[in-house]
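Reminder to self: keep the SMILES exactly as supplied, no canonicalising. Ligand is thiamine diphosphate.
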Amino acid sequence: MQTKALSPELVAMMDAYWRAANYLSVGQIYLYDNPLLKKELMLKHIKPRLLGHWGTVPGLNFIYVHLNRIIKAYDLNIINITGPGHGGPGLVANAYLEGTYSEVYPHISQDEEGLTRLFKQFSFPGGIPSHVSPETPGSINEGGELGYALSHAFGAAFDNPDLLVACVIGDGEAETGPMATSWHSNKFLNPVHDGAVLPILHLNGYKIAGPTVLARIPHDELEALFHGYGYTPHFVEGDEPMEMHVLMAATLDRVVGEIRRIQRDAREQGFTERPRWPMIILRTPKGWTCPREVDGKPTEGTWRSHQVPMGDMGHPGHVKLLETWMKSYRPQELFDKSGRLRPELAGLAPAGERRMSANPHANGGLFLRDLRLPDFGDYAVKVPKPGAVDAEATRVQGEFIRDVIARNPSTFRVFSPDETSSNRWGAVFEVTSRCSMAAIVPGDEHVAPDGRVMEMLSEHQCEGWLEGYLLTGRHGFFSCYEAFIHIVDSMFNQHAKWLDVTRGIPWRRPIASLNYLLSSHVWRQDHNGFSHQDPGFIDVAANKKSEVIRVYLPPDANTLLCVTDQCLRSRNCVNVVVAGKQPGPQWLDMDAAVKHCAAGIGIWPWASNDQGCEPDVVMACCGDVPTLETLAAVQLLREHFPALKIRVVNVVDLMKLQHHREHPHGLSDGDFDTLFTTDKPVIFAYHGYPWLIHRLTYRRTNHGNLHVRGFKEEGSTTTPFDMVVVNDLDRFRLMADVIDRVPQVGATAAYAKQAIRDKLIEHRQYIEEHGEDLPEIRNWRWGLGEKEKLAGGKRES
Ligand SMILES: Cc1ncc(C[n+]2csc(CCOP(=O)(O)OP(=O)(O)O)c2C)c(N)n1
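Structure tokens returned for the bound complex:
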């Protein structure tokens, strides 16, 4: 195959550039000193602990130099996503060769001293990690946990019409679930207003220690697989560098031509049909160019080259072998005596922001603009007095989100695994649709190629797309069932780690926060039952660095609106918002909601009767259903024990419970003690697993008196009230908890407890006969008399 653009001179130069990148990569893995091998290599020049991955690196470097060529030849705007992010040395080497590395880290200068530091810092205490971590300029995908590269790539390309996202996918990585589903992203990429993604499947044949699936299936099956996914696969296969350069360059020329044709057609004629985007299948030897054999065992082209091809450098002959290997790249042809890359080679790299390591899309905060937000107060539910009206909190939130979409037509998207409607955000379909480039048939509702609602039934895909979208400077919201957000626990982990690290990197600009709405939550999974009941994502979130984690449990629609506005304005955080979608009582008017959310936690005076004195008990609640049960319990208590002084504390911002030295939102001990007292019983009704509340408060003065009720893995397809009953979170149980802990309740306690027991028996008999909750439970309202009902009086109908 020929390519006009590639003269023999250019091939030779590109090969030299590739050798330079490979040399710097090997140097990073092995060398402590003597970076230009000016002296004979000795053991003392080698790091004592060799930590890194070589096998994928020569392939990554090969791709890089070829992308550089097309950036220059076609003036392309490319970012490069490295699935096998364990190939960190390669990407660091290229950022260094392009000069970006020295610009952001001036002490890693373009000379022998800088080279020494570059080599030493890699996988070294006080230095940089071994992966394409946030410290690596040009990276938006660490690739430590494999599987997310392609979803990230498509997320980056959405609404970036001029961007081409090259995405290297390891053949091992291609075996992961998230990667397997992410090939379908091409059904969601609109060639009119989105950029392009070029997947480069890197078949180097092996994972850590075994063969990969895709490297061991016949060519026609492989081709058919990717054809079936809707791509045009282009094969680049071989191990002879000069031939491979020519083949790769020619293939990239064709690929660029195809991408341009697709985009031109779509942009001139509008979207007509889903394009068949090109992709590359690159088959090269694993560890390409490293020693063929080490200690008599094949190494180049095998799994043995995955990490450090020669680990034990004390072994006779290994130092010599390393020296021979490094000298095979002919460093004296690549770097001048001072250690600087020769100018004719340096000239191969693109300039300025066209360098993939300096492309601002890979430092998305540079592009970030505040959203144009409507006034959330305009969506307020009118609440004449607490509990007077019912509303579906997320439906109200959906109206706000609808207008965020409308006002930000190219910088905000909604992501959901098919739950936008189910979670009651249906209002968004008044202004947009579900995005799809695939066939649309009569009967489809709200499906269109330019939709802003990204729905695919893969939490991985949604999470990956959103992360890619955020990391390149845009905004979004992920709406998910609470139980199934666990599917992306580890993706969330990786993103939270990324955010945490970027906080310490001055050149990385803050990005929009990752916002989750978790609805259809544990307490109201009426259709689905036990499998759908799991509030544990909050616990996962709470494990991460407090600086990047926020958890909100707004008790009603107006507080949910405030919190949503807050999330959309926040930066560099993960905001977890848990809110119900079922009709429920509304507690706060907008004015009160704004004040309550600003504080994050507070006494609800209208529900309390301890004004002017010490309370006998604090009834705390966090989450919409626990708040409802708490208020119902408070009402019962006040009717039965009028002298009892009760304080009601509601928590919207869960992290308020933590100490202010442990979380930026945390309360000081003084403020915590003021709310929760230092010695009174606290009955805490919590949305999730109770132990988290203990964990957050274990050092507080009054922790010994804290009694937490929450979800304890009791569930089924049953009535809403029975869910709280079986988990001991119901109003009667909370009332009993108070009776058990507060001596002041006095002589009437025995009768009240008996009435509670009888009521719970009545509840069970009623639901088993009628299939729904007792009318007095269904129709309960704050402020109505309960005493006679508890005592078995007249029932409402
Ligand atoms: C999800 C996940 N599982 C396991 C690993 C451990 N791991 C690191 S590299 C690797 C092999 C990767 O193979 P491939 O994607 O083909 O990359 P390459 O061969 O180019 O190094 C594995 C299993 C990981 N990083 N992420």
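Points to follow up:
The pocket of thiamine diphosphate is lined by residues 55-56, 84, 86, 144-147, 170-173, 176, 202, 204, 206-208, 212, 286, 306 (CB under 6 Å).
The two ends are 83 Å apart (CA to CA).
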